[in-house]
Design goal:
Number of strands: 32
CATH topology of the largest domain: TIM Barrel
Number of helices: 9
Oligomer: single chain
Largest sheet: 8 strands, parallel
Strand content: 25-35%
Length: about 550
């Protein structure tokens, strides 16, 4: 009796498995045989400027694909006459699979052709087209200067780029595009030219002790995937196979506006503050990187950041693999990439994908520390720009901060920016969040979400620094503090140009190549310039500074 029951149960189990297998095979066959009613192609323009992009929209009538993000795709080959084609991936731009898009950013004027293919199972539909790219004098993509690799240039114009960045992690949490445009417009007017912005992530309810309360106008949940509980901090219920199309479209509107302001956006893929992530190196994670690259790579004004505080939730080996995948394989234009660790040894300095360092160093003094980073970079045999992208935020003092009580004041951070610049390096700052979001006066947000008001004046001091350095060929100089009085800083292009920074006023004695030099004082606090009598090499001592604040001197060969 027992044996009979066992045999019966075994037969039933095999029957259920067979039925399930047949159902699975049937579903697979259905996907292979599925075909939409009609597929049409529409091109955005016949002529565009180089470093803008042409977009082809693929409209699918009566879509029947179960998951349009995983079971159908669009690919393209774009080529300028006489050149090898560039492979480009498209993306699904609708939850139901009715719209796909593919974009291409030409870097040179000329006549272009392309061939596209929409594929869904065994169904394919191809399309050919042409367009023209003209020289619209757009600044183009940000690159490392091949002649002066400590520095950056705009690829489109060859102009040098004096990096002056700030942080607005949760800027895309604002509901209204007008607020986001206002943030970018204000920062651009203050001569900020790069913003760190988080693509995927969510913030803890504490908001790091800052006066921020979410509301209908601002939410800290940046959902790149479809979520069952989109406002949950630790259990959003993401479907990692389906993307939140409306959120990505919002990002693209932001990128277009930022591009019109020549504003570089650092696309931060994730951060350690999020409680949930796709599994490291999983298909879900790689699909996310692929989708972001397909949507954003054609925007000239981006750089990639694999993750904020990356060393807290991913390994250096992971960064190498995913950075290579994103920058060298998924992005047809190879925009500059980096990642931002807590542990600064987590820097893939020698790898091709790694375009610049993104340090997190709060401990003062910064100038000798950054000089040492340059030495470490030289030792690798590969020179790339050195950037400290997190040295504290204005008026922000976590319990572990080494700079309490005044090290994160607007004045202290302005001085810190000079320390980095005088080391031949760059920096990214962050404004105070104390003006509040959802808290009176509800006009701020600063480093948390980007918003600011007229009472926030720290960046005016940074703008004076930008004006100073962009008044001469700063990229041709290198740091050499041995030429000046101990405690002062010096950049030099020997015999042509010397820049001296006096943290504690002066006078200062400078060793120069023989000859006469035009000399002028620069007040970093006000931007005021004052002419000095000519300086004569090989040694020159300045008159005392007008007050006890910090000062700079510019010496240019006559």
């Amino acid at each position: 009796m027992i044996a009979t029951l066992k045999n019966t149960a075994s037969v039933r189990c095999r029957s259920r498995m067979l039925i399930l297998l047949i159902a699975m095979l049937g579903a697979a066959a259905g996907m292979l045989n599925a075909a939409p009613g009609r597929v049409s192609f529409s091109q955005s323009a016949e002529s565009i400027s180089a470093y803008d992009f042409v977009e082809v929209t693929i409209t699918v009538t009566s879509p029947d694909v179960q998951n349009p993000f995983t079971q159908a795709n669009v690919t393209g080959q774009f080529a300028m006459a006489g050149q090898a084609p560039t492979h480009v991936e498209g993306f699904c731009d609708s939850a139901d699979g009715s719209v796909y898009r593919i974009r291409f950013m030409p870097s040179n004027p000329g006549e272009y052709t392309y061939v596209l293919t929409y594929k869904q199972g065994s169904f394919t539909k191809s399309h050919e087209g042409t367009f023209r790219a003209t020289d619209g004098r757009l600044k183009g993509t940000l690159r490392v200067d091949p002649q002066y690799p400590w520095h950056f240039i705009w690829e489109g114009t060859g102009q040098h780029y004096f990096w002056n960045g700030t942080t607005a992690f949760l800027m895309m949490g604002w509901r209204n595009d007008s607020v986001i445009r206002g943030i970018i417009r204000r920062l651009s007017s203050l001569e900020v030219n790069r913003i760190r912005v988080l693509l995927a992530g969510r913030a803890a309810n504490s908001f790091w002790g800052e006066p921020i309360i979410p509301s209908g106008e601002f939410q800290p949940f940046l959902n790149v995937w479809v979520a069952e509980r989109p406002t949950s901090v630790d259990n959003p219920g993401f479907d990692y196979t389906r993307f939140n199309v409306k959120y990505f479209q919002k990002w693209e509107r932001m990128l277009r506006y930022a591009r019109s302001k020549d504003m570089i956006i650092s696309v931060i893929m994730e951060w350690n503050d999020s409680k949930v992530h796709p599994a490291a190196l999983s298909e879900d994670e790689k699909r996310y990187f692929s989708y972001a690259a397909a949507r954003f790579s054609a925007f000239s004004n981006i750089t990639w950041d694999l993750g904020d505080d990356i060393s807290s939730f991913r390994s250096l080996a992971w960064s190498h693999e995913m950075g290579t995948l994103l920058v060298e394989q998924l992005d047809p234009y190879h925009h500059l990439g980096t990642d931002h660790p807590v542990d600064n040894t987590h820097q893939d300095r020698t790898s091709k994908w790694f375009g610049f360092t993104s340090f997190q160093e709060w401990h003062q003094p910064y100038h000798p520390w950054m000089l040492n980073q340059r030495m470490l970079q030289v030792a690798t045999g590969r020179i790339i720009p050195q950037v400290n992208e997190e040295y504290g935020y204005e008026d922000h003092y976590p319990t572990w901060s080494p700079n309490f009580p005044n090290g994160q004041s607007a004045e202290a951070l302005r001085r810190a920016a000079w320390e980095f610049s005088m080391a031949g390096a760059y920096q990214t700052t962050g404004e105070t969040a104390k003006r509040g979001t959802g808290v009176w006066p509800d006009t701020g947000g600063g480093w948390v979400n980007g918003r600011g008001d007229s009472s926030m004046v720290m960046l005016h001091g940074y703008a004076h620094m930008v004006d100073f350095f962009t008044s001469f060929d700063w990229w041709k100089t290198n740091p050499d503090d041995s030429l000046v009085t101990h405690g002062d800083f010096c950049l030099r292009d020997p015999g042509k140009l010397y820049v001296v920074y006096l943290p504690m006023a002066g006078p200062v004695t400078v060793k120069l190549e023989p000859g006469a030099y035009q000399a002028k004082w620069f007040n970093p606090r006000t931007g005021e310039k004052t002419a000095l009598p000519d300086a004569m090499g090989p040694s020159w001592t300045s008159p005392p500074a007008a007050d006890s604040g910090d000062w700079a001197i510019l010496l240019q060969r006559k």
